[in-house]
Amino acid sequence: YVEFSRxxxxxxxxxxxxxxxxxxxxxxxxxxxxxxxxxxxxATWLEKHNPYAKAGWDATANITIVPRTSVTLxxxxxxxxKEVTASRARFPKPVKQYKVLSFFGDNIVAxxxxxxxxxxxxxxxxxxxxxxxxxxDETVRIILDLFDNVWGSQESIVIDHALDITLPIALFxxxxxxxxxxxxxxxxxxxxxNHQMSFKDAIHEVSMNCxxxxxxxxxxxxxxxxxxxxRLAFEELDSHMLEIISKRRNAEKKEERHDLLSSxxxxxxxxxxxxxxxxxxxxxxxxxxxxxTTAHTLxxxxxxxxxxxxxxxxxxxxxxxxxxxxxxxxxEEMPLFTHSMAVFNETLRMFPPVNGIPKYSAExxxxxxxxxxxxxxxxxxxxxxxxVINTVGLHYNPRYWKDPEEFRPSRFLEPDWPRDAFVxxxxxxxxxxxxxxxxxxxxxxxxxxxxxxxxEIKEEPQFASETFEQRKARVLxxxxxxxITPIRVPLVFKRR
Length: 496
Ligand code: HEM
Description:
- One of its GO terms (cellular component) is membrane.
- Its main location: membrane.
- This protein is of the alpha+beta class and 496 residues long.
- The chain has a domain at 120-350 and 430-495: CATH 1.10.630.10.
- The protein has helices at residues 2-10, 26-30, 43-47, 50-55, 78-86, 113-123, 129-151, 163-179, 199-208, 210-215, 225-250, 260-268, 276-307, 309-322, 338-350, 391-395, 435-452, 468-475, and strands at 16-21, 59-66, 70-75, 156-159, 356-360, 365-370, 376-381, 386-390, 453-457, 478-479, 485-486, 491-495.
- The strands form 4 sheets. It has a 5-stranded mixed β-sheet with strand order 1-2-3-8-5. Strands 4-12-9 form a 3-stranded antiparallel β-sheet. Strands 6-7 form a two-stranded antiparallel sheet.
- The termini are far apart.
- The chain binds protoporphyrin IX containing FE (HEM).
- Protoporphyrin IX containing FE binds at residues 93, 108-109, 120, 285-286, 289-290, 293-294, 297, 353-354, 357, 424-426, 430, 432-434, 437-438.
C-alpha cells in the first residue's frame, strides 16, 4: 500500500483514470468496457491516440485494484519509449506475465536477466543471413506449391477469409525454416508409429489453439472433446520435437542445415547447461511469436491492397519493373523491393499485432513526455510502476504521422520517416529477433502473389449497398486474440 500511494502521489495532477480491473487481470481481459470497472479488451486498439489527445499529454496513468493495487503508465511519446526500450536494467520485462508461455520449457520470450542473455546469445546465430536465404527459398517453394497444386488454372480464386491462406502459409514457412520439416498444402502425412497425430496436424492444432492452453489449467483441458484434442496436440508436438532433436543429435552424418533448430543445436553444443527442454522451449516460442503475428499482418496487408486498388497498382508496377519477364524473385533482389517493404511498414503502423508491450520500473526514476503543443513534462516514475508501450497510440500519434488514419505506404519511402515512432517489433535489446525472418518471408509472398494476381474484396449481395467507409469497417473489423485478429476478410484473387 505504501508503494502504491507513493506511485499515486507521484502523478500529482497528471491525467489518470481508475478502473477496478487492470488489463493484466483475467477479468480485465474478459469484461467489455464498463466505466470505472474495466477498459475492455480491445480498448487500446479502438481508442488509438484519442485518450492522449484528450489528456493533453502523450502519457496517461491507469490506477487499478485487481490483481493488486497498481499504477500503469501508458506511453505514446517516441522519445520516452526509446528511453524505456533502451534501458533494459531500468525498465525490465515483467516476465511473470509471460510464464504461461513456458509449457515446453523456459525460453527467450519469458525470461529476463542472465537467463535471457544466454538464450538470446544462443538464438542469435539462428537468425543469420544463411537462415534468411533458407526462409526465402522455402517461402518461394510454398507459394509455388499453392499456385500449382491448390489454385491451379482457375482464373479467380474466392477466399472466404484471407486468414484461411495466411495462417497456413506462415505455419508452413515456420515448419521448414524453424523445425527443418517441410509441410505441403495437399499431402497428408500419415501418423508415424508411437504417435497419435502427425507433425503437421499437431503443429497446426497447437498454433491455432495456444490461447486455450494459456487460459485453461491442465485439468480443465480434459473437460471437452475440443480441449482434449488441443491437449493431445501439445503432448504430440512435444514428443515430435524431442524426436527431431534426438535424431539430429545422433545423426551419423551431420547434414549442413540452416533451420533455426539446427542453429540452436550447434550454438548450444558448447553450453552443457542448455538442455533439450531449453531447446523445445525456445523452438516452440518461435512458433508462438512468429505464427499469428505474421499471418495477421499478411491478412491486413491483403485487405488494405484490396481496399485501395491505386496503392496495389503502384506496388504491382514497381514489382513488374524488377521482374519484367515474369520470372521468380531471388533472395539477392530482396533489397530492391522497396515498395513491398513500404506496404508492410504502413500495414504494421496501422495494425501493429502487439498492441501493448509491458515493462516495469525497477528503480525510482523519471520520464519526460511531450504533447501536441510542444510542451515537456517530467513525470516521476517510482519503483514498481507498470509501463505499457502503446504501439497503436504511438502509430496514430499526429505529432509523428501526418493524417495517421490514411493508408499511405509512400511515407516509408521518404528518407526521414520517424523511425523512433515506429515500434511494431518493439525496440532496443529486447526487440523482436524474428523481424528479418518476417520481412524475408513477407516480401517473397507479397511479391509473388501481386505479380500474378490482382486482389479484390469479394462482392456479396447482402453488402451491395454499403458505402466505402462501411465496407472498410466491415473488412477490417478485428477481435482480440494472442494478437489483434481480423474477423473476416473475404477476398478474390484474379489472375493478371
Ligand atoms: C509481423 C511479425 C512480427 C511482429 C509484429 C513481432 C513483434 C514482436 C514484438 C513486439 C516483440 C517484443 C515483445 C515483448 O517485449 O513482449 C517480439 C519479440 C520476439 N519475437 Fe517477434 N514479431 C514478429 C515476427 C516474429 C517471428 C517470425 C519470429 C520467429 C520466427 C519472432 C520471434 C520473436 C522472439 C523470439 C521474441 C523475443 C525476443 C527477446 O525477448 O529477446 N517474431 N516480436
